[in-house]
Amino acid sequence: MPIQATTVPTTEYVIKLNRLLEKFVVFETVFDEYAQTCRNISLGKCLVNENLETLKLYFEQNLTVLRQFVAQAGSVEPPIVFEQINQELQSALADYVVATETMVDSLEGDELTVYQRIILGRSEQTVQRQRINQVLQ
């Protein structure tokens, strides 16, 4: 079901933006932990139940939630003074999703190759996080 866009007053938009960023930090933490888990798996320093197949399931679940989050974030029409910031923020979030999709797609193959691809995807996520930081400064 598509989410209906609504324009909000400036103060309300700033509050919603702050909440959005708080949720984004959670995604950042989760995907960073997944990259670390992938590293541990590739080094053989993991728990018995940690493997690439399980990690991929967790990644996919959180990617689904991330996509919903980005759609919800895009459903709020900003006040005119925030239109440019909002557009740049939405672009960075969309690119963050693409980087995450790349990470999920790379979770097949030998453990070292998978880890190398995860690191590349994580680097792209970092670039998008930095874009978000720049937009908000």
Sum up the structure in keywords.
single chain, 137 residues, mainly alpha, two-stranded parallel sheet, 2 strands
Largest sheet: 2 strands, parallel
Low-confidence stretches: none
**Order of H and E elements:** EHHEHH
Q: Give the C-alpha Rg.
A: 17 Å
Strand content: under 5%
Q: Which range best describes the helical content: under 10%, 10-25%, 25-40%, 40-55%, 55-70% or over 70%? A: over 70%
Q: Between the first and last Cα atoms, what is the distance in angstroms?
A: 34 Å
Which structural class do you get from the secondary structure elements?
A: mainly alpha
Tell me, rounded to a whole number, the average pLDDT.
Answer: 91
Widest sheet: strand order?
1-2
Query: How many E-type strands?
Result: 2
**DSSP helix count?**
4
What coarse outline follows from CA principal-axis ratios?
elongated
Task: Give a written overview of the molecule.
It is a single chain. The model has no long low-confidence stretch (mean pLDDT 91). Helix content is 77%, strand content 3%. It is an all-alpha fold and 137 residues long. The chain has helices at 10-43, 52-74, 83-105, 111-135, and strands at 6-7, 76-77. It is elongated, with a radius of gyration of 17 Å. The protein is built from four helices and two strands. A two-stranded parallel ribbon has the order 1-2. The termini are far apart.
